[in-house]
Amino acid sequence: MQFNIKFRPLQLADAHFINNLRRLENMEKLIGGSIRPVSLERDQKWVEDLIMKDDQSTVYYAITELENEEIIGYTSVSNIDYRNGTCFWSGIKLDQTKAGKGYGKQTALKLMQFVFDEMRMVRLAAECQENHSIALNMMLNVGYQKEGLMRKRLFKNGKSNNQWLLSVTDEDYVEIKKRNGL
């Protein structure tokens, strides 16, 4: 697969981009976490903490196009358990002007490469709201498998929502790698 994106470490200046994404209510309604106003200063502190802390259980990356270093999104892996070889894809947030260009799929596959080839994990889990068909279809398309529907897992938009639990194992990744030329 030819990637049109790359990952780079977060930079302090990325806080402006991240803060602007948080203001997109239509996006926030479809992902985990609370919908709440967050000041630019808070996001600056959050990004600074991510950069400066030596947290071995979470990795964040800025997503950029190959030609430049300007952030177009970010993604992360959390709950990294080196003893058991498991982790959780915390998701992806992309600039809405980049939607439909395959960047979500590329991010998912590039992240899998990192998780399985570099971190030597054996299982990568993810979750997605039952009604977020775009995210669900993308995850299924790249090789995630549904493990089950978690009922009333996330309170969002004034109600309890169901979420899909999905995963990729190291055995699944062997096939995903072949199928996508990774």
TrEMBL record:
Q: Which residues are the signal sequence here?
A: none
Q: Which residues form the N-acetyltransferase domain?
A: 5-171
Q: Which UniProt keywords apply?
A: Transferase
Specify whether Mitochondrion is a keyword of the entry. Answer: no
Stored InterPro entries: Acyl_CoA_acyltransferase, GNAT_dom
One term of GO molecular function: acyltransferase activity, transferring groups other than amino-acyl groups
Q: What is this protein called?
A: N-acetyltransferase
Name the source organism. Answer: Pedobacter chinensis
